[in-house]
Amino acid sequence: MSVREVLTPPGVGDVPVESPALTSRTIGIFGTLSLPVGMLALPVAIYLAPLYSGQLGIALGLVGTALLITRLFDVVTDPMIGIISDRWRPAIGRRKVWLILGTVTLMGGVWMLFRPPLDATFLYLVIAVSLLYFGITTLRLPYYAWSAELSPDYNLRTRISSTIQFFLIIGILLSALIPAWVTEQAGATSVDVMATTGLVIVALLPPIAALIFFTVPEPPAPVRKASLSPLALAKVVISNGPFVRIVTVILIISTGEAVRQSLTVFFARDLVGVENVPVLYFYYFIAGLVCVPLWAWLAKRMEKHRAFALALVLVAITNFAMLFVGPGDNAVFVAIFVAKGACYGALLLLPNAMIADAADIDTAKSSDRQQGLFYSAESMVQKFGVAIGAGVPLIVLGWVGYDASGETAAEPLLALQLIYGLAPGVLVLGGAAIIWGYSLTAERHSALRAEIEAKRAAAAD
After folding, report:
1. CA separation for the pair 45, 22 (Å, rounded)
2. Tens of pLDDT along 216-238?
3. Among 209, 170, 145, which Cα is nearest to 41's?
4. Per the count of CB atoms within 10 A, which of 49, 185, 219, 334 is most buried?
5. Is 313 exposed, middle or buried (0-12, 13-18, 19+ CB in 10 A)?
């Protein structure tokens, strides 16, 4: 499958009847929102701790604590936004209204977190991270629910998800290029990297959101049929076996990936001796971008869940390999790191496409579309995993006396290597074993969609 095929739907005549406006241009425009959102991932995961601890003087353990406690708010905000976006029916569209609200909120969070005052405190960090995460929630959840509603087709959903992740990785690449350029300037620090990146994100969000708002159609909302009671909604999610299996894996791999992401700068700089980490990430995400079409092709050839499991096994191998990397092994480290990057797209596009399919189980039962509910549950679980994976390792390194500004002592470096290589590898390998038994195949999903269409036709008569 070519990059062009990933970014566009099948040819004219193959587009499902429900989505008459789903042209290649429409899918391409829709996917662009993930570009500025993608620019958040690298600086938050990689440069946040060096900025607030190494530059602004907040204790490393407190930075980890801030990341951990701010995720607790997501227990409330994620289901709240997901359910409201399903139920609220404003005239401009139940998904489009959040495109406006989320853009404004996220811009405020980015500006506050990425451009802090030099005397920023722990409380400032907690507020800034909370606002950023709330902005991501209000923008991302209705957006992904909208993406699931653009088409009911099993393979076309993979195409839509691939497009979103394609632009997401482009955004990440831009966020890697900016630090690479900034750090080449004399005297540049993490403060300059974050400030410049934040300015670019804030500048990109409004025009992209406006373009999507005015050009991408939103399918009509169905008549409300599902119960609004919290207990009933929880039962909808928990009783969906394929969805529960997906989010269990997402929790596990999000934790493992966050461990690795939060420690990469320290591992590359202090243990291996890599001088320019931003350039390293550029190669990493180039590999991810190039391989997006490959994972989309594999998902069609061998089912989404099996392609997902294959990617997780490869990721686990690269994690364990880090246990054998030592000082000066720059070439080996880069090779392993780039191999991991080749799997990055699979860990994004495949679960999102699978959630869209799993949500159809509820649609078949209720004749409602509650994608916001399912994506909010996934987001809550994913963020919880990221909070644990990003926060706990920093706290542990703080306990062993790791110096975030540059460590040379043997014992803290050993602790870093064991956490960096062993914990993510075990977690990701466990995720691969769980997802292998996933039951919602293309054949079963086809039967599910036939049931939904039959109910819809009967209701219309």
Report:
1. 34
2. 988 877 666 555 677 877 888 88
3. 170
4. 49
5. middle
Q: Are 225 and 367 in contact (CB under 8 A)?
A: yes
Enter the pTM of the model.
0.77
User: Which one, of 248, 251, 249, 228, lies nearest residue 238 by Cα?
Assistant: 248
Amino acid identity, residue 23?
T
Is the CB of residue 325 less than 8 Å from the CB of residue 347?
no
Least Cα distance to 147 among 185, 103, 95 occurs for 95
State yes or no: pLDDT of 10 exceeds 70. Answer: no
Residue where the block lists tokens 């977690």: 427
Q: Are 358 and 374 in contact (CB under 8 A)?
A: yes
Q: Are 106 and 143 in contact (CB under 8 A)?
A: no
State which of 274-278, 319-323, 437-441 shows the largest mean pLDDT.
Answer: 319-323
Q: How far is the C-alpha of 219 from the C-alpha of 78, rounded, in Å?
A: 23
285-329: pLDDT as tens digits: 899 889 988 998 999 889 899 999 999 999 999 999 999 998 889
Residue 17 has pLDDT above 50, yes or no: no
CA angle 169, 175, 181 (to 5 degrees): 135
